[in-house]
Specification:
Structural class: alpha/beta
Helix content: 10-25%
Order of helices and strands: HHEEEEEEEEHEHEEEEEEHEHE
Bound molecules: zinc ion
Shape: globular
Number of domains: 1
Number of strands: 17
Number of helices: 6
Length: 290
């Protein structure tokens, strides 16, 4: 308990010390920031230092590429999709020659990603403004001529640019690339302030009919019943900000993705998740998304 409390305090101090260059300016936001800052991510449990392994983890599907865990898929027409596990809420998707970066964050409680070593992004997609999802420096590093930034109204306001999508909005980025913004919010009493309904996005990214659901920070909301035909889902699982393992289990059984990557899971025991989903028919893959 003492250790947990100290972690919270240190996290809060670190954020304060890091300065407020990326701090949202409105009156309501410091609450959610401070609380999300309390997310315990001790250095000893960093993705690099301590990859979690569980019985159900299908590591055979995974290879290392560019220093990251990578899962490869093929679309029905044979195009390559590579999913790179960066960390926590950050992922990189390579579709043919096209690069997507989702919620790129350089330094998360000491887990550092050097985005200068990665390809510039054709599309940078940011779900919401919290520091474990939105990092101006990472976005600047990944931007090239022709990069498209897609985010919500709040992040576009803070960053000063970006195409805004609200819950329910859809757009075709290319003939074979389609994006839909879907709701992502808290429902548990007392947790609504973390991610209030209507502010943040999850996204369904369709690449040559291959459908990837990136849930963002959300609980198992009723709108998930409308999310169908998902090839790969990224669902968050940490307290108090997103889902419990039980909620993740419920959400997964509603959505029925072919493959599930639990992500944004912090200290959550992934063994509990794989046990709950054992008979679900879903291919659950645990990667270093602490
Ligand atoms: Zn988060």
């Amino acid at each position: 308990m003492k250790h947990f409390f100290m972690t919270i305090c240190m996290g809060a101090l670190m954020f304060a010390a890091a300065g407020c260059s990326s701090a949202p300016k409105t009156a309501t936001e410091p609450v959610s920031e401070q609380t999300e800052t309390a997310q315990p991510t001790p250095a000893e449990d960093t993705p690099q230092a301590n990859p979690q392994k569980t019985e159900n983890t299908d590591m055979a599907e995974m290879t290392m590429e560019d220093g990251f865990q990578m899962d490869a898929f093929k679309t029905q027409s044979g195009k390559d999709i590579k999913l790179y596990c960066i960390k926590h809420g950050s992922l990189r998707i390579r579709y043919g020659e096209t690069e997507f970066e989702i919620d790129p964050v350089t330094d998360l409680n000491g887990v550092v990603t050097d985005y200068t070593k990665l390809p510039k992004a054709d599309y940078i997609i940011v779900t919401h403004e919290h520091f474990d999802h939105f990092d101006k420096a990472a976005m600047d590093t990944l931007t090239k001529d022709g990069s498209t930034i897609i985010t919500n109204d709040s992040v576009a306001g803070i960053y000063g640019k970006g195409d805004v999508m609200a819950n329910g909005d859809e757009k075709s980025l290319r003939d074979d690339i389609h994006l839909k913004a879907v709701p992502a919010y808290n429902t548990t009493a007392g947790h609504e302030k973390f991610h209030p309904k209507g502010r943040d996005n999850g996204f369904i990214l369709t690449l040559d009919n291959f459908r990837i659901y990136i849930a963002g920070d959300t609980e198992d909301i009723p709108e998930m019943a409308d999310i169908k035909d998902i090839d790969v889902a990224f669902l968050p699982c940490n307290q108090p900000y997103t889902m419990t393992p039980e909620q993740l289990n419920k959400a997964t059984r509603v959505i029925q993705p072919k493959v599930l990557f639990p992500y944004h899971y912090g200290q959550t025991d992934m063994k509990q998740v794989t046990d709950l989903l054992k008979d679900s028919g879903v291919d659950v893959r645990i990667r270093n998304y602490q």
